[in-house]
Design brief:
The protein has 453 residues and is of the alpha+beta class. 28% of the residues lie in helices and 12% in strands. The strands form 5 sheets. The protein has a 4-stranded mixed sheet. A 3-stranded antiparallel sheet has the order 1-4-14, with helices on one face. Strands 5-6-7 form a 3-stranded antiparallel sheet, with no helix packed on it.
Length: 453
């Protein structure tokens, strides 16, 4: 049974009373869910050699992620929120992501898998004890409405998605359950929809799960545009490849063409050709590329080149968000494309229910007011914009989550992937990465100006 949930639009719970009790129960349940998932991706799936080894210089050893989520939890929920003394201040530097680049973490004196489990269990026991006495004072921006707990819950799930990227890079036999995708009829209706021009409210100032880079809510005027109802599929990207798209500099920016020629890439990551067909490697399995799934493991440069070849472009971040959550009938914005209700299995492909994107058209229940489909889940969608601050941005509770990445060549991705947990899947959530990254579960959809043909 799922934990009781409070609406993200509810006012802050009183310091004590039924609303606070409801929030405590949800926090405890979500913390436990995240830990089960982390352990399922590490100690329950792999032996010690696979956990302590580095499967790619792009990623940490999985054992680092396992202890890092516990150390982050200790620092924020025990030290910062509860004012307790540190359990293991000696390991803080080992699990500081800014002090230790991913490629170097394998050489650190990390906790063993067993030590990491024991440490995480000690932290969690104390967290649950302090949670029983937590006061959600609306005047306290860290603890009020449960913000710091929501931050830690999402942080662990975000590392779980990172661990899934490591699993994809790992060589070896399959170790993760792989349920089949849902059957989906071919998408019915137009291939793109018109989003009328005008103002809408971008970002949020009230969602207690939101990060600082989603804040504050502000009005943005977006000219009319058209956006694809579905993400670009493998079949469509195969057409781009067959037409020589990877070898034609007309479609690539200068930076993109430099990446293409230097890297030698001519297909999405994990694809290879076998005679006249394309295969992909997915979590230890080799299989034909399914034509109706959104293309995955493409970088920003590939997405941008495909869009130019198709006579389109990538949507701006504001266009993407307006298409996902603005309701033109009421002039209001939604937390999710379908409304404010928490994501359900009929809304979107989220939370690792599958190990792959679902076919286009699989979730009509998640359709946005604009008519666009599957804007949450399946694949992270590259947008045209650099990662920058919103007007009135204030770093909280620490600069290193968002601010240090602004204006340094990072591109924004929106919408979440099949690996993204529902707690981090909302239409205001902003992800970012370098434009050359392909190990992430990224794809794209096309857009164009309303008057363009």
């Amino acid at each position: 049974m799922s934990a009781p949930r409070t609406s993200p639009r509810d006012p802050d719970p009183r310091p004590d009373g039924p609303a606070a009790d409801l929030l405590r129960r949800r926090i405890a349940a979500e913390l436990e869910h995240g830990r089960r998932r982390s352990e399922g991706l590490t100690v329950e799936a792999l032996d010690e050699a696979d956990l302590v080894g580095q499967h790619s210089p792009l990623m940490s050893p999985l054992v680092w992620d396992l202890a890092h989520v516990g150390n982050y939890e200790e620092q924020w929920l025990l030290r910062a929120a509860a004012g307790q003394q540190a359990l293991r201040p000696d390991i803080d530097v080992l699990y500081d992501a800014f002090e230790n680049p991913r490629a170097d973490r394998v050489h650190l004196p990390l906790l063993t898998p067993r030590e990491a489990l024991e440490y995480n269990a000690r932290v969690r026991a104390r967290v649950l004890d302090t949670l029983d006495r937590a006061v959600f004072d609306p005047a306290d921006p860290l603890v009020g409405a449960g913000f710091v707990y929501h931050m830690v819950i999402q942080h662990e799930h975000q590392h779980d998605e990172t661990m899934l990227a490591t699993h994809q890079l790992r060589r070896g036999t399959p170790v993760l359950d792989d349920p089949p995708p849902p059957a989906a009829p071919p998408p019915d209706g137009p291939g793109e929809v018109l989003v009328e021009g005008g103002p809408f409210t971008m970002g949020t100032s009230a969602d207690p799960w939101s990060y600082d880079n989603e804040r504050p809510a502000h009005t943005v005027h977006v000219p009319a545009f058209r956006i694809a109802t579905a993400c670009v599929t493998n079949a469509a990207h195969l057409e781009f490849m067959a037409d020589g798209g990877y070898d034609d500099p007309r479609w690539w920016s200068a930076a993109g063409w430099e990446w293409r020629t230097r890297s030698g890439k001519r297909a999405p990551a994990f694809w290879h050709r076998d005679g006249d067909r394309w295969l992909r490697r997915r979590f230890g399995r080799v299989e034909p590329v399914p034509p109706d799934e959104p293309v995955q493991h493409v970088c920003f440069h590939e997405a941008e080149a495909h869009a130019r070849w198709a006579g389109r472009r990538l949507p701006t971040e504001a266009e993407w968000e307006k298409a996902a959550r603005h309701d033109p009938a009421t002039g209001t914005v939604r937390r999710h494309p379908w409304g404010d209700a928490d994501p359900g299995p009929h809304h979107a492909n989220l939370g690792q229910r599958l190990l792959r994107p679902a076919p286009a058209g699989a979730f009509p229940g998640g359709t946005a007011p604009s008519g666009a489909h599957q804007m949450l889940g399946d694949v992270w969608e590259w947008t045209a914009d650099d990662f920058t601050a919103y007007p009135g941005f204030r770093a909280f509770p620490y600069r290193e989550y968002s601010e240090v990445f602004f204006g340094d060549g990072y591109k924004v991705l929106r919408g979440g992937s099949w690996a993204t947990h529902p707690t981090a899947a909302r239409a205001t959530f902003r992800n970012w990465d370098l434009p050359i990254r392909r190990q992430i579960f990224s794809g794209f959809r096309l857009a164009r100006d309303a008057e363009a043909r």
